[in-house]
Each structure stands twice: as C-alpha cells, then as structure tokens.
Amino acid sequence: VLDSQYGMYVWPCAVVLAQYLWAHRRSLPGKRVLEIGAGVSLPGVVAARCGAQVILSDSEELPQCLQSCRSSCLMNRLPHVPVLGLTWGRVSPELLSLAPIDIILGSDVFFDPKDFEDILTTIYFLLEKNPHAQFWTTYQVRSADWSVEALLHKWKLKSIHVPLHSFGADKEHLASSSMPGRHTIEMMIISLAQSEGT
C-alpha cells in the first residue's frame, strides 16, 4: 500500500535515471541540476558525485522526504548539497529565487495523474526561466489510460523518447523490482517547444 512513505524507497525509475546520468557523466561537471520529487535522491546524488552542482527538492508538505534527501547527501559525503521544499504547481519564494539551471531531474514523478498538470506547470515555469534547460524524466507505465502528451501540448512542451538500450538500462536486473508484476520503465527528455522560425 502506497502512503506517505513512497518517497522513502528507491524505485526502479530512480535506478534507470541514475544509469542515464552515469552514462553521461562526462558532460555533468559544472552543470547546474535540480532534482524534483527527489525522495531518497539517487539521481541527484549520482549527478553530484559526477561533478554537477545539484539542488535537491521535494514537497514542502513532506518533511520526511526532505529529511530523506538530507540523509542521502550525508551518507554520500555531499553535506553541502542544498535541499529545498518545492511543491509542484505552487509559485513559492524558493521557486522564484532558484539560480539558473541546466537540467531538471525527475524519477517516477508521473505517478498520480492528479499531479501531472501541477508537475508540468512547475516544469514549464523552470524552462521558461531557463530556455536551454531540459527535464530528464523516467516513469513507470502503470496504465494505458493516461498520458502526458495532451498536457505537454497545452504547456508548449515537447518530449523526446530515450530508448533504455541506448544507455545500457534495458537489463532485467537494472530496473527490475521485487514488487509483483511487470515494470515497464520509459525515459523522456522534455524541453520547450520552440515556435516556428526561432
């Protein structure tokens, strides 16, 4: 049963996104990275260990998730990585005062369809402020009934599907889980949809 503890577990999507970061580790030093919905922060920790300037964030309403972010940093000898409370869909002083970023990370943030628009509202705000940034996200296909495509169009965002085999994340042991059922993980890179002629 999923409850407030869901942000305290390393889900398969986090492992896949961490693998993508590891595969692109040579491009990370000096990059400014924000992980949203970080929870235990595996992708953000990997990015920081690879030389990126990382900020971790989770909902300001989930203090146990923010503490989990801090604990992950301490366990991985990253005591200076900032942890912010950022709630999706809410314009807060923390969101407004964020320094420029190059990459936004989000593993399994597309979990509950009621949150999708709030997530993409926040992503759109961040990409408008940082037009050359990208949102790297992994998600588990849980239902054929939902998709973010219509919301991407609404928020003038585009996505590129990234095949897992292109970065060695299609191995059964990498994204497999002890949870029952088959777990299909997908990855996409979301950016601003550029208007014609720009």
Automatic annotation (TrEMBL):
Principal place of residence: cytoplasm
Species whose genome carries this gene: Ploceus nigricollis
Catalytic activity entry: L-arginyl-[protein] + 2 S-adenosyl-L-methionine = N(omega),N(omega)-dimethyl-L-arginyl-[protein] + 2 S-adenosyl-L-homocysteine + 2 H(+)
Membrane spanning stretches: none
Leader sequence residues: none
Protein name: Histone-arginine methyltransferase METTL23
Any one GO CC term of the record: nucleus
Biological role: Histone methyltransferase that dimethylates histone H3 at 'Arg-17', forming asymmetric dimethylarginine (H3R17me2a), leading to activate transcription via chromatin remodeling. Maternal factor involved in epigenetic chromatin reprogramming of the paternal genome in the zygote: mediates H3R17me2a, promoting histone H3.3 incorporation in the male pronucleus, leading to TET3 recruitment and subsequent DNA demethylation.
The UniProt record lists the keyword Methyltransferase: yes
Family to which the UniProt record says this protein belongs: Belongs to the methyltransferase superfamily. METTL23 family.
GO terms, molecular function: protein-arginine omega-N asymmetric methyltransferase activity
One biological process term in Gene Ontology: regulation of gene expression
Database matches in Pfam families: Methyltransf_16
Key words of the record: Chromatin regulator, Cytoplasm, Developmental protein, Methyltransferase, Nucleus, S-adenosyl-L-methionine, Transferase
Quaternary structure note: Interacts with HSPA5, HSP90B1, TUBULIN, UGGT1 and UGGT2. Interacts with TET3. Interacts with STPG4.
Database matches in InterPro entries: Methyltransf_16, SAM-dependent_MTases_sf
Cell location: Cytoplasm; Nucleus
